[in-house]
Amino acid sequence: MSGTRHYLDHASTSPLRPEAAAAIESWCGSGVYADPGRQYGEGRIARDAIEDARAAVAGLLGVRPREVILTSGGTEAANTASSLARPAGASAGALCSPAEHSAVRLAARRAGRVVDLEVDGFARLDLDHLAAVLEASSDAGPPALVHCQWANHEVGTVQPVAEVVELAHRYGIPVHVDACVALGHVPIDLGEVPADLVSLSAHKIGGPPGVGALVVRRPARVTPLLVGGDQERGRRAGMENVPGVLAFGAIARTLAAPCAVEIAAARERELADALLQAALAVGGVAAYGDTEVRAPHIVCVGVEGVEAEAVVLGLDQAGIAVHSGSACSSEAFEPSPVLEAMGVDARRSLRISVGWSSTEADVAAFARRFPEVVERLRELAASSA
């Protein structure tokens, strides 16, 4: 692809960080290709490297290394977490809002009965509704699990995670938190927010695809999604993705440095706020989601008078990569459940997101090209009407 490109879709996936690339290159150049489960020297070297990386991820979150199950990514982690909603008896099932990622929603429905939780116009979970559902179900048969994302993947709204965990625990219900979007952008301390299960993904913070983790706090007990071996203390079968895990660990060490997440978040918010202001300067553009209490790297807007897909293509021709709504929903050519639940027009949504490699030049390019693209598309729509 020729010409200067400006990548503004970090919420989907983020370019590989230098420390992640260095970790992969170092391992692949080491000549050690042994199974980490073997007892000979090469196997022990691989095992030690994995455990060092696991400890780095655990340290970033404030949990013990043994509570971190390494997975192939956030999707596998969420599906494994949903196994907690399959206990015997009539109480099997989960509470889950339509604002959750499709991996969580579909895994929850496959696991058992699901009660939909309400969200407001920002896609934020309605705590009063959650409390009412928990109270009503306490006698009829409580759910086995509550799902709550840390931050919304489409509009960036941060959820009241601590309140959800406290409320669910009051009724003895464990909570699964999807933190894939929040990790590296919002400080996460699982000592302060004692969620029972937490899904994580490396590729959204500059790691390679194909690696993530599920934090499982005691006394939660999950059923392995993948069987066939005793890896991960019998909680996830299959040989570990050693170079991917080491890259994940390298990023975790970077983010665990004092104030590293806060500093990165402040920079991302500055860039994202500038993008939002550039978008809102165009007539007929409105912000979706909470513009204040949000993941700092994500903004979402609605563009009146044109289909967002056309705006995405127009910006792509101008060298700018953004996205319309959720990656998963748009690939299926279905309206976004998140935006539908918010009561806004999913066909008009444009998600713009920054990350570790974003620059002021990316913002300037968007600010220059976005009005041109929207104006041209509106003129085409008017001429064909």
Overview of the molecule:
The protein is α/β, with parallel strands linked by helices and 385 residues long. It has 2 domains: 134 residues, Aspartate Aminotransferase, domain 1 (Alpha-Beta Complex), CATH 3.90.1150; 239 residues, 3-Layer(aba) Sandwich (Aspartate Aminotransferase, domain 2). It contains 13 helices and 12 strands. It has a 7-stranded mixed sheet with strand order 2-8-7-6-5-3-4, with helices on both faces. A 3-stranded antiparallel sheet has the order 9-10-12. Strand 5, helix 6 and strand 6 form a beta-alpha-beta unit. Helix 1 runs antiparallel to helix 8. The longest helix has 25 residues. The two termini are 34 Å apart. The relative contact order is 0.17.
Give a brief outline of the structure.
With 385 residues, this protein is of the alpha/beta class. The chain contains 13 helices and 12 strands.
Secondary structure topology:
Elements: E1 6-7, H1 18-28, H2 41-61, E2 68-71, H3 74-81, E3 94-96, H4 102-111, E4 114-116, H5 127-140, E5 145-149, H6 161-170, E6 175-178, E7 197-201, E8 212-216, H7 231-234, H8 242-256, H9 260-280, E9 285-288, E10 298-303, H10 308-317, E11 320-321, H11 327-331, H12 337-342, E12 349-353, H13 360-384
Parallel strand pairs: 1-11, 3-4, 3-5, 5-6, 6-7
Antiparallel strand pairs: 2-8, 7-8, 9-10, 10-12
Helix pairs in contact: 1-8, 2-8, 3-4, 5-6, 9-13, 10-13
